[in-house]
Amino acid sequence: xxxxxxxxxxxxxxxxxxxxxxxxxxxxxxxxxxxxxxxxxxxxxxxxxxxxxxxxxxxxxxxxxxxxxxxxxxxxxxxxxxxxxxxxxxxxxxxxxxxxxxxxxxxxxxxxxxxxxxxxxxxxxxxxxxxxxxxxxxxxxxxxxxxxxxxxxxxxxxxxxxxxxxxxxxxxxxxxxxxxxxxxxxxxxxxxxxxxxxxxxxxxxxxxxxxxxxxxxxxxxxxxxxxxxxxxxxxxxxxxxxxxxxxxxxxxxxxxxxxxxxxxxxxxxxxxxxxxxxxxxxx
Length: 283
Ligand code: NAP
Description:
Elements: E1 3-4, H1 8-27, E2 33-39, H2 43-59, E3 62-68, H3 74-86, E4 92-95, H4 105-110, H5 123-131, H6 140-151, E5 160-164, H7 171-180, E6 184-188, H8 195-200, E7 204-207, E8 225-228, E9 232-233, E10 239-240, H9 245-248, E11 254-255, H10 266-282
Parallel strand pairs: 1-11, 2-3, 2-4, 5-6, 5-7, 7-8, 8-11
Antiparallel strand pairs: 9-10
Helix pairs in contact: 1-10, 2-10, 6-7, 6-10
């Protein structure tokens, strides 16, 4: 049976460390503060917002919510971001995406100051992930993958990591973060030939595809560690990842579950980025 790499202990350990750091900031008169910008009321956004607020409360991070109607004007949204940029009492901003279709998401995302970009929505932050320099932070989900691997003591240096998926939100940044830890990284996508054969060679396999059941036993080897980033709704209700968990779990060394895996670490990472941004601003 594979070791189950659950997210909760990882999030718990990050949270404990952040409580101490938030306390130190507050003792210096700095109240670490996160702005949350939400356009409309999508269920997924509301669920994540509530989870983020609960995590912030636990740590001692204040939250300022900017709630906008789904038909909000692009200029009004840009004004809100400018207000956040200018406000020295706000240290980071989470804005839910995708934005409604009448808004040019690219323009709006670039309007945020990179030093407050705690979930990598600007190109400047992304450039930081690729160059290893700059003020930005990696996307929270990509960083959550790294936090899980670190917490469970998975050695990366010199090992072969394969990432399935090449989005800017997960696949590409995870590949960069793994490479920064001296893993040898292979990226796979929808046009990859013999994907099962390539993945089978991996010591560490990260699945960020968005299709249930993509990773089957043919993708695995007995020493493999799998991080399943996928979140897919089941027709009968509930969620599943990109890995055919029941078939794959007995075949590998360790695997993250879905739910209760990567998804449960992302709000802790969001708070980690926020505390770091607050500390930088307080210097
Ligand atoms: P995305 O933008 O749709 O990208 C999916 C990637 O998977 C693409 O690069 C695509 O390749 C590749 N792909 C699609 N079908 C494939 C196949 N059959 N074989 C190999 N590669 C295939 O999705 P995303 O935003 O990166 O999200 C990926 C998954 O993570 C989704 O399930 C999403 O819900 C989940 N997610 C989880 C969290 C969390 O907290 N755990 C957070 C955000 C997202 P091409 O580039 O060739 O099209």
